[in-house]
Design a protein that fits this description.
Radius of gyration: 26 Å
Number of strands: 5
Strand content: 5-15%
Largest sheet: 3 strands, antiparallel
Strand order of the largest sheet: 1-2-3
Distance between the termini: 81 Å
Structural class: mainly alpha
Order of helices and strands: HHEHEHHHEHHHHHHEEH
Shape: globular
Helix content: 40-55%
Length: about 300
């Protein structure tokens, strides 16, 4: 009650309590976070507190999820049918609002990852719109001018940022990974990004093997030059910023070390040497984790 009074929802808490007792509202009220207008009637407030209708819940979307995984999260936490959410993110009006090409199947990449406070009974369409609006709110207006000067579209930046999000575990590497992909794009080189192969499979792979690189899909950047048809995940603010303002470096290759940090290279020969170094590091790491065989005790 004190919170409702402090927020201006109930301007006369004493009289509201008396009225509530008269209406039989002394017990059974649902605690939680609610969204009320300052001029809400007592009847509306009381009904909401009694039934829990209008309650808000926290819903967290981590960075780097694919849209199908966001749909799974919406179903498990919010009760929104998975298929309903996947249909909502195909909305042509949403794509038009974002400037996403009409050919793009969904607004993948624009479902901004953050913690939301949403109505407990929110629908798929409203949730998708809330996530897109959050993306637009997070987009720095100065970035648009930067893209224009570099002759890049927002769709291109979000696509690269989504790959960066999927690749990077060590935060300081974001700008360098983004630089590698943008440098390769400018040179007409294939991106050869493992996360695009995973996206082509539509599910998480424990490891990307050589055979996986042959999957026939427009998203497979080992087979097709240029960008994939669209983003492959939901990038966070850090990956978007790193892609708009990448490191000014000549790197064209990188390989991940066991600790998640990357070794960057300019030439393919340097890259091959880096791969050999990482393989030695992994072999040494496996050897340290391998259980030691007990020393046979001497014969008595």
């Amino acid at each position: 009650m004190d919170t409702l009074s402090a927020r201006g929802v109930i301007t006369h808490p004493f009289w509201f309590r008396l009225w509530g007792r008269f209406k039989g509202l002394r017990a059974g009220l649902k605690s939680g976070t609610y969204a009320f207008h300052p001029d809400e009637t007592w009847k509306v407030v009381a009904e909401a507190l009694k039934t829990g209708r209008g309650a808000l819940i926290h819903w967290t979307v981590p960075e780097g999820l694919m849209a199908t995984e966001v749909a799974d999260l919406a179903q498990s936490r919010l009760g929104i049918p998975r298929d309903s959410f996947l249909l909502a993110i195909r909305d042509p009006e949403l794509k038009q609002e974002l400037g996403v090409p009409a050919s793009a199947p969904t607004v993948e990449g624009y479902l901004f990852p953050t913690t939301y406070l949403v109505p407990a009974r929110i629908g798929a369409r409203d949730l998708a719109r809330a996530m897109v609006r959050e993306f637009l709110g997070q987009w720095d207006s100065s970035w648009t001018a930067t893209l224009d000067s570099e002759h890049l579209t927002r769709q291109a930046i979000v696509t690269v940022a989504s790959i960066v999000e999927a690749e990077v575990r060590y935060d300081p590497d974001r700008q360098y990974v983004a630089a590698v992909y943008l440098n390769r794009l400018r040179r007409g080189m294939k991106l050869e990004a493992d996360p695009t192969v995973i996206y082509a499979y539509g599910r998480r792979l424990k490891r990307v093997y050589e055979k996986n690189l042959l999957i026939r899909s427009p998203y497979n950047t080992y087979l097709h030059a240029g960008l994939p048809p669209g983003p492959i995940a939901q990038p966070g603010h850090a990956s978007l910023a790193a892609t708009v303002h990448p490191a000014v470096v000549p790197y064209l290759y990188f390989v991940a070390q066991p600790d998640g940090k990357h070794i960057f290279s300019v030439t393919y020969a340097e890259h091959e040497a880096a791969i050999r170094k990482v393989r030695r590091m992994r072999a040494a790491s496996h050897a340290r984790r391998a259980p030691a065989h007990p020393t046979p005790s001497p014969t008595q």
